[in-house]
Fold:
Amino acid sequence: MTIQEIEQEIIEEFSVFEDWMDKYNYLIELGRECPIIEEKDKNDNNLIKGCQSKVWVSAKMDGDVMDIKADSDAVITKGIITLLLRVFNRQKPKDVENADISFIDTIGLTSHLSPTRSNGLNAMLKQIKLYAMAFSIQENSK
Structure:
């Protein structure tokens, strides 16, 4: 699936919930599906700066797509990173770099997060896009 198709799927899933408590519960549920980072990768290099909770994200290339894994010590944050991984994992770096991430606003996530969680979301997005940019540069230099 393309990034846009996955984003649309997420928008449709969130549209069935009218109450934000239900959306938070759904995020917590999604967090259980997070592609968990290996213990050895839970280090300072993979720790996302700017998050109130601890979030680790690692990425490597698997053929021509990114293989991204993550974990967090907070359940809602784990749900948020799982959403991002659902969109960006197994995608080509150029597609991740150029992705329009307006689905986050469309589902109302930005307006319903505390300022610290919102900063964390932005930090997670920035890190994933930085990985994509680095992989693109690496690919172009071959």
